[in-house]
Amino acid sequence: MSASEPVVADEWPGHFPAACPPADADDLSGTVFLLVATDPPTVHDMECAIDRKTFKNEPECFRASLSCARSAVHLDETRRAVPRLRQFVCAQADLGPAHGKIMKTRGPGHYSMWLRAKYLAIGHTLFRVPR
Question: What is the mean pLDDT of the chain?
């Protein structure tokens, strides 16, 4: 999907607020890394802060995103630094513009990813824990 193609009304998940993802978010392209609770990933690994009822003081659009990274090293550092994430594993997927949008947010190495509705529903099947 290119920027010149019309936006489909149900292109984005229903829990995304208006104007989400942000207009300045980039098309997904390349490898994305995500911390997941299980190997293989499950639908629960695709839950956002809205689903988990966390980060309630953050803007809703960012709460609707999935936290991810462009580097497995960043996620390894995050796992070591955050006790509740130590049991998680790093999964990766090669994604393209049709899958959604991504934006550099918050601290070093942190990105927010918005998957289109049809990919969010199967997002856990896109990610693999490397062997």
Answer: 91
Spell out a b/e string for 7-21, using b for 16 or more CB atoms within 10 Å of the CB, else e: eeeeebbeebeeebb
In DSSP notation, the chain reads --TTSPPPTTSS-TTSPTT-S-TTPEEP-EEEEEEESSSS--GGGG--HHHHT--TTS-HHHHTSEEEBS-HHHHHHHHHH-GGGTT-EEEEEEE-GGGEEEEE-SSTT-EEEEE-HHHHTTHHHH-B---
Q: Which residues are CB-neighbours of 71 under 8 A, at least 6 positions away?
A: 33, 109
The predicted-structure confidence for 38-75, as pLDDT tens digits, reads as follows: 999 999 999 999 999 999 999 999 999 999 999 999 99
